[in-house]
C-alpha cells in the first residue's frame, strides 16, 4: 500500500514547472518590461547603485586578467577594486569575461539575471509547496506567493545580486530533503559569487541541515559531516579568494550597523508605502532622516494576502494543534538566529526605540562587516511564508484551500498594485537616460588618452561619476571616476588631490584627459595653461596630447 503522504518528496512535474515559470516571466515583464532583457539595452542601469554594477562589469571585461582573477585595475584608478566590490554579479562576470570579445561593446546581463531569479523563486517555491499537497493548482498558487515576494522586488530598485532569494528557498528545500554535501557546495558557491549576505544565510541553513542529519535523522556521523564541511570551507575560501573577496583596499567593516537594521514590526509594516490597504507606521526619528532609508534594509512586508494566510494558519493550528515535525526545529532555530541578528543591537518597535545593547568594540567591528543587518531577516520571512501555506494546506480540504489561496493571492496582487505601477514607471524613466556628455569632442579627446581623471574639488561622486565612468569604459580608459564598496570616495579624492598638486607643479601627463567637474578647480592651474582649457557641455577640460609644461 502506498503511504498517503508519499507525494511529499515528489518533484513537481514539468507542466507545473512550465506554468510557474510562465507566471514568473509574466510578473517580470509587467514590472521590468521586455526591453530590459535585451543585452544591448543598458541605459536603465546607468542610475543609482545599478550604474556601479554595470560599469564594474564593463571595466572588468576590458582589463587584462589580473591576480586574483576578479581584480579590476582601471576602475577606481589607481587603487582599483575587484568584481566583488562593484556588486557586478561575479558569477556571470567571471563566466563571460573569456568570451567578452565576442559580445557587443556595451553588453548587460542583469535583465536576464533578474528574470532567472523570478523563475527560480517560483520553481523552488513550487518544490517546497509540493511537499504538502498533491494538487497541481494548489502547488502553483502557493508558488505564486514566492514569485510576488515584496522583499524580492525591493531589491530590483538597485541590488540585482541580492535578488537571488531562490538560494534561500533552495536551501530550505535541501534541508527538508536531507543532507547532501554536493548540493550545499553548489548553493554556497553560487552564493559566494552573488553576494556575501546570501552566502552567510546559505551557510546558516547548511548548519541546520547538518544538525538534522546528525542528531535527528541520524543518517550521518558528526565526524563525516565535519570533514565534508571542512572540505567545502576550503573550496569556498579558494573560490572567494579568486573572485576578490579578500582583496579590498579598505576595511571590510563599514558604518551603519544598527541603522540599516530591521524593525520588530517589519512583517506587517509596509515601509515605502508598499500597501494599498495597510497604513505605514511612523519610524523612529533617527531613521527618518532619509525617509525610511534606514530600516528599508529590513523590509520584510508579507503582503496583505499572506498576512491573511498567516492569521488563518495560526487560527487553524490553535484549533487543531499538531506537533511540529522534528526536522523543522533546526530550521526554526536558524530563522530565529538570523531574525535576532537582523534586529541588531538597536531594537525598535514601530517608532519606539526599545533598547540598545552595548557591544565591545571588537564585536561591533565584526558585526559591521554585515552592516545592513536587516537583510538577515529573509530566512525567517520565507520560513513564515512556507509555514503559513503548509498549515493551510494541512488543515483545509483541497477545494476549500483552493478558494482560500485564490482569494489570498488576489488580495496579494491588489495590495501591491500601486507599488508595481510605480516600479514600472521608474524603469520606463530609467530607460530614457542619456549621458549629459553630448559634445562630439568627448570622443575625440578620449581616443587620444589612456586615462580619465576627475580633478578636485569634486562634487558628490555617488551622483556625479556615472557619465565620466561611462565615457571611460567606452574608450577603455582607466579612471578615478568611481564609487566602490569598501573603498568609497576617499581613495578617489586623495588621488585627485595628488593629481591637482602635480598639475600645480607643472607636471602634466600627455596621455591623461583631465576633467574639472567644478569650474573653480581649473582656476588652480598655472596661468599659462588656462588658454589650453576646453569647455565641453559645461565642464572645463585639459586635453591630452599637449606640449606642457610651456617654456
Which residues sit in consecutive blocks of at least 5 with pLDDT less than 50?
Answer: 1-8
| Largest sheet strand order | 6-5-7-9-8
Summarize model confidence as the mean pLDDT.
Answer: 93
The amount of helix comes to 40-55%
- State the end-to-end distance: 99 Å
**Quick one: overall form?**
elongated
How large is the share of residues in beta strands? 5-15%
* Overall radius of gyration: 26 Å
- Describe the main β-sheet briefly: 5 strands, mixed
Task: Write up this protein.
It is a single chain. 49% of the residues lie in helices and 6% in strands. The protein is built from 20 helices and nine strands. The protein has helices spanning 14-32, 48-62, 90-96, 110-129, 136-147, 150-154, 166-177, 181-192, 196-216, 222-243, 304-319, 329-343, 361-367, 378-395, 398-415, 417-431, 441-446, 461-464, 466-474, 490-504, and strands at residues 71-72, 81-82, 346-349, 352-356, 451-454, 478-479, 512-516, 534-536, 539-542. The strands form three sheets. A five-stranded mixed beta sheet has the order 6-5-7-9-8. Strands 1-2 form a two-stranded antiparallel sheet. The protein has a two-stranded antiparallel ribbon with strand order 3-4. Helix 4 packs parallel to helix 7 (166-177), helix 9 (196-216) packs antiparallel against helix 12 (329-343) and helix 11 packs antiparallel against helix 15. The chain is elongated.
Amino acid at each position: 500500500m502506498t503511504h498517503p503522504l508519499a507525494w511529499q518528496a515528489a518533484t513537481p512535474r514539468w507542466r507545473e514547472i512550465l506554468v510557474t515559470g510562465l507566471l514568473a516571466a509574466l510578473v517580470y515583464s509587467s514590472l521590468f518590461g521586455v526591453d530590459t532583457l535585451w543585452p544591448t539595452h543598458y541605459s536603465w542601469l546607468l542610475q543609482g547603485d545599478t550604474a556601479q554594477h554595470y560599469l564594474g562589469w564593463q571595466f572588468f571585461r576590458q582589463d587584462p586578467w589580473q591576480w586574483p582573477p576578479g581584480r579590476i585595475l582601471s576602475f577606481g584608478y589607481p587603487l582599483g577594486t575587484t568584481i566583488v566590490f562593484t556588486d557586478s554579479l561575479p558569477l556571470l562576470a567571471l563566466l563571460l569575461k573569456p568570451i567578452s570579445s565576442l559580445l557587443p561593446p556595451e553588453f548587460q546581463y542583469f535583465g536576464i539575471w533578474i528574470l532567472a531569479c523570478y523563475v527560480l523563486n517560483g520553481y523552488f517555491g513550487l518544490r517546497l509547496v509540493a511537499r504538502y499537497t498533491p494538487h497541481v493548482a494548489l502547488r502553483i498558487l502557493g508558488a505564486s506567493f514566492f514569485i510576488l515576494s515584496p522583499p524580492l522586488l525591493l531589491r530590483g530598485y538597485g541590488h540585482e545580486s541580492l535578488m537571488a532569494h531562490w538560494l534561500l528557498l533552495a536551501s530550505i528545500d535541501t534541508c527538508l530533503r536531507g543532507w547532501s554535501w554536493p548540493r550545499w557546495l553548489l548553493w554556497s558557491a553560487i552564493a559566494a559569487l552573488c553576494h556575501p549576505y546570501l552566502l552567510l544565510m546559505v551557510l546558516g541553513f547548511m548548519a541546520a541541515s547538518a544538525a538534522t542529519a546528525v542528531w535527528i535523522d541520524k543518517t550521518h556521523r558528526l565526524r563525516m559531516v565535519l570533514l565534508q564541511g571542512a572540505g567545502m570551507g576550503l573550496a569556498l575560501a579558494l573560490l572567494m579568494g579568486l573572485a576578490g573577496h579578500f582583496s579590498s583596499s579598505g576595511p571590510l567593516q563599514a558604518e551603519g550597523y544598527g541603522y540599516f537594521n530591521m524593525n520588530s514590526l517589519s512583517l506587517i509594516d509596509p515601509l515605502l508605502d508598499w500597501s494599498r490597504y495597510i497604513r505605514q507606521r511612523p519610524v523612529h526619528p533617527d531613521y527618518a532622516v532619509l525617509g525610511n532609508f534606514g530600516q528599508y534594509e529590513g523590509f520584510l512586508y508579507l503582503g496583505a494576502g499572506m498576512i491573511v494566510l498567516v492569521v488563518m494558519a495560526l487560527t487553524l493550528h490553535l484549533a487543531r494543534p499538531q506537533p511540529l515535525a522534528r526536522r523543522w526545529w533546526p530550521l526554526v532555530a536558524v530563522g530565529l538566529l538570523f531574525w535576532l541578528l537582523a534586529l541588531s543591537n538597536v531594537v525598535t518597535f514601530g517608532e519606539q526605540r526599545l533598547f540598545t545593547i552595548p557591544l565591545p568594540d571588537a564585536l561591533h567591528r565584526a558585526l559591521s562587516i554585515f552592516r545592513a543587518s536587516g537583510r538577515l531577516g529573509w530566512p525567517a520571512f520565507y520560513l513564515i511564508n512556507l509555514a503559513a501555506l503548509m498549515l493551510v494546506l494541512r488543515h483545509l480540504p483541497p477545494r476549500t484551500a483552493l478558494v482560500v489561496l485564490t482569494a489570498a493571492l488576489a488580495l496579494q496582487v491588489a495590495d501591491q498594485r500601486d507599488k508595481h505601477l510605480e516600479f514600472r514607471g521608474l524603469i520606463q524613466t530609467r530607460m530614457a537616460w542619456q549621458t549629459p556628455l553630448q559634445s562630439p569632442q568627448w570622443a575625440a579627446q578620449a581616443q587620444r588618452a589612456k586615462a580619465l581623471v576627475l580633478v578636485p574639488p569634486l562634487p558628490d561622486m555617488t551622483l556625479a561619476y556615472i557619465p565620466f565612468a561611462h565615457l571611460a569604459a567606452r574608450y577603455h580608459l582607466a579612471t578615478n571616476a568611481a564609487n566602490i564598496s569598501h573603498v568609497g570616495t576617499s581613495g578617489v579624492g586623495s588621488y585627485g588631490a595628488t593629481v591637482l598638486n602635480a598639475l600645480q607643479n607643472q607636471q602634466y601627463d600627455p596621455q591623461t584627459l583631465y576633467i574639472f567637474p567644478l569650474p573653480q578647480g581649473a582656476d588652480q592651474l598655472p596661468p599659462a595653461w588656462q588658454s589650453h582649457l576646453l569647455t565641453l557641455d559645461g565642464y572645463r577640460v585639459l586635453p591630452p596630447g599637449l606640449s606642457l609644461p610651456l617654456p
